[in-house]
Amino acid sequence: MATSTTYDWITTEHSIVATDLPQYILNLTLNSANLTTTNATNVTLPTIGRKVSPTSTAIQFTFGVIGNLLAIFVLVRSAKSHKWRVFYRLVGALAVTDLFGIVATSPVAFIVYANNLRWVGGQPLCDYLSFMLIFAGLATVFIVAAMSLDRFVAVWFPYSYSVTMKKASLVNLAVVSLWIVSISIAFLPLIGLGQNVLQFPGTWCFFNFFGTDIKDKCFAYFYATIGIIMILLTAILNSLVILMLAKANRQNGVRRKASSVGSRSGKSRRNDVFIMIFLVVLMVVFATCWTPLMIRIYILQGTHTSSSSLDRPADLLALRMASINQLLDPWVYILLRKENMLRVLRLMERFRKHKGFR
Prior knowledge:
two-stranded antiparallel sheet; mainly alpha
């Protein structure tokens, strides 16, 4: 027997009591059948009684756009140095994907804020925003995992890597394939596996990860499982790369004087170390931003009307953390470029010598 539940994120004057949280949320899917009121294109979702400001959204938008544009500019400008090797092509794809995701989704939130949190556009705009969020999010996850896979193959199987990864067309094809897979998954709620719904506080749409329908649950589990697998895969691959680099450095320390190609292999390993530092930091940022959303989705699949499933602000926070990943990715690359790390090492060396001299 269902128990009556009051939605604590709705103001008192708009309070709604129902026997099923998901049913109320499903009424916010903005289907044309539900919009036969006086204004069939606009829906207002009440907030929790406080004024909502677009300032944070505007700051994130500016920070993300500038960061990704700057990362793309730095990549293009330093093309002679990295020669668009596989890893750097993937970095470029990541920056382009993050930039596209920000530009394609943020304007919708600005429109809703400008209309006093009144949703404009009905279900078509809701489907568009959810589609873009799913696509850009999964594409980012896949590309980060691909970067880890690239380093793993390059370090563990250098000969095979040098033979198979010479053609840039293969890398471009891989990136396009990841985009196509992400698009295909984002299309699933549009064709019946799950559905896109308006989310708290009424400024964004996403797939229904708190529904009781079997199709909603299937897509929610599918989406969260993909995310968890990619996070674990990235962590495992990076750990194996670090293990191999540490082993190679120990061996190089023993053979350095005897090896005629020691200087070249040492330079190559040093470059691998720089890339690995960048990749580890990127992985930490990636896992920190995405894990809460995946865990939150899993938790909601096992609850219906409990207090945890009613925590709409927690859902919003989890998605915002995931979206912050698109803002931080380019700055991680900009700050941890090989050139910047070399400058830091030189400064540290000078400081150490100066301190030792004194």
